[in-house]
From TrEMBL:
Residues 1-149 form the RPW8 domain. It holds the Pfam family NB-ARC. The lineage of its organism: Eukaryota, Viridiplantae, Streptophyta, Embryophyta, Tracheophyta. Belongs to the disease resistance NB-LRR family. It comes from the Eukaryota. Keywords: Plant defense, Repeat. The keyword Repeat applies. InterPro entries: Apaf_helical, LRR_dom_sf, LRR_R13L4/SHOC2-like, NB-ARC, P-loop_NTPase, Powdery_mildew-R_dom, WH-like_DNA-bd_sf. GO terms for biological process: defense response. Coiled coil: none annotated. This is Probable disease resistance protein At4g33300. PANTHER family: PLANT BROAD-SPECTRUM MILDEW RESISTANCE PROTEIN RPW8, TIR-NBS TYPE DISEASE RESISTANCE PROTEIN-RELATED. One of its GO terms (molecular function) is ADP binding.
Amino acid sequence: MAVNDFFAGEIAVELIKQLLGTCKRYTLCKPNAEQLRRTLEELLPIIQEIKYSGVELTQIRQSQLDRFSEILCQGLDLSKKVLACSRWNVYKNLKLAKKMEKLEKMVAVFINGSMQAHILADVHHVRFESAERFDRLEGQLAAMKLGVSGDGWSENAVSKVEENEMDVDCSINWGVGMVLGKKKVKEMLIGRDDLRVVGICGIGGSGKTTLAREIYRDEQVRSYFNNRIFFITVTNSPNLEELKLQLWKKITGNHRSGFGAPDVPVPQLNVQYNWMLTERTLVVLDDVWSLSTLKHLIFRIPGYKTLVVSRSKFPATVIDCSYELELLRETEAMSLFCYSAFGQKSFPLDANEKLVEQVVRECKGLPLALKVIGASLRDQPEIFWKSANNRLSRSEPICDSHEIDLLKRMEISTESLSDKGRECFLDLGSFPEDKKIPVNVLINMWEEIRDIDEAEIFAILIELSEKYLITLVKDGRAGDIYSSYFETSVTQHDVLRDLSLHLSNYNSLNERKRLLMPRREEGLPKEWKRNRDKPFEAQIVSINIGQMGEMDWFHMDFPKAEVLILNFSSNEYFLPPFIERMSELRALIVVNNGIENAVLHNTRIFSSLGNLRSLWLEKIILPRLDNTTFPLQNLCKTTLVLCKVNEGLNGTDFPMLFPRLSEFTMDHCVDLIELPSSICRVCSLKSLSITNCHSLQELPIELGALKSLEILRIYACPGLKRFPPGICELGSLSYLDISQCVGLRSLPDRIGRLVRLEKIDMRDCMQIRSLPGSTGSLRSLRRVICDEEVAVLWKEVELEALPDLRVQVPQTCYSLDWLTE
């Protein structure tokens, strides 16, 4: 995953210095320079927090921050020209003054728009997963037509998840060992220049990452390191070269714009380096599995410290001092378990106290086991508790060398799940460790192989979340009716992912329902090669690998495979030849985790995928689509994320290639300028979602031909200035999202012709100052979400023509208070 190293903070600092000089020397530029200086001084703490927070950004958010960085670069160049200009050159000073005024306006527009606040919220949510709250989840459930009201079970379920997260993580889970651990680790980090590498170790699920995040957020620690703290998740199968380069850029401030520290080369393996940091720096390396990996990520630089979080206790030759995390004491374990099982911190009156104590004792003080097992026993009859206790008692004690026994203990947590819920939990092991899984991916997959719809899928995810088997992470803006599930993701603790893998591997290799690679490897597992003579019976095949050429694959048969997940990290990738023989394949997911977009080879195999119904491509250079390569006659859903699409889509005949396409989604396809007009001839299309495509300038004139279109999302496309008149001919349209399209100047004049339109989301459309007269004809319209200025206009329409309309000015769904935490 790429990291935001654009370091706009340094640019802003230098720009402020230059502008101060400009204010003193040139009267003509002083008003604009002074205003710009004040604006940047207000913004600077936020920019610096992004730089020094250690937040690792996805590629999805990187381009947005880069745009702002480019504006600051322009300001820096301009101020240098002003300083270099003679004070007697009045004409040139006048020109520079005008440019300064233009720059000030650019920055003001960028800042005053709430887009950047949304981006900052995204940075927050990507890193601090535990802070994600499902405050408006009921809206999504309603969108899936669950048939429940705002007072139904959905609201109760969501509030229960939220309360459990907050109460357990913030109070109960903090035993004496955790408090003591925080104190001791802080003592190692603060004022101890002799300790450059400090460790936190303990069994999986003991709370190591929780403790590390508390250290990371601690005010005293942040003050000592002047907010120069970086949190990096390493995982069991990291791409070491990419990770090392990204980490080194964070430390040194190297940046392609040329600002920050000099271009210092990355040092060799674990050596003393003759370069000194100007400020203290702390790097937290979470989830480190091997000593060889750790040695690549430790830099011996004066002023630099590393906090290593691992299941292993590494030797003193590498770690100067370690803290071994203690498990919960008896009373602490009981409080945590009771809260998970009963929703309170002590025994209920009707509970079998002796039986509860026995179950808690078998969890051996391990927080994750207490939470997961407790949640799995919630509301179960006593006979179920006795059975669980018997199973727990047959396992050996949990210790560093017996983590497999932890998995055996936690296996009972899946027994209370429904059959489909258990299968869905096991499916989650198909995805790479420590990666967020977009709910859209799961929907596309489970609709095909589990025969369940979106409503039931989300209900299953709620169930898994309530039992602490997954964590649901929601974008701060998500949750409204018809919102894209791309804004909601699933994460898993690595022990719980291990549990799903453990349960999936009971049968022999060729007979397993899921053929999975537990971690990223450079080639296919040797065990697969030894068993390739027989067909593999797997329904799901997941491959996590580096670069693959044609000769790197070997023959394998998957006669029953319905889902293929390909994760890789390279600039080129040869699609596996055995796909041609996957006659039952219904869902294909191809994700490039490398830095740059990848070129796919062997795309001719698509011609053999006659049953393919769902296609997900991420960070791919879309190949040219033509009749011979991509005749996907049964394809219903296509999602393109972070793809380069211009060449691939150019000249595409959509109705010929995808005659049954019902959902088409493009997210962060930054080179998209316009949609192919042929997409308007796909009669089956019901949902069109174009989000975060900043270069999109116009929609097809023939858009009105999509008579079956029900959902149109054109979200965060600032280059779009107007809608084609044909949009008013979308007779089936029920939901329109144009939020954060800051370039839009007005709604279509004949919007009143959208007789089935039920909801409009038009937040942050700052240039829309009036409403067309036809809005009063929107008889089906029930909800409008907009800013305060536009809400006044809609309320007039509500009073005059649409009494059932609800105009909602959303509460701020992001907060910048976390910058001071």
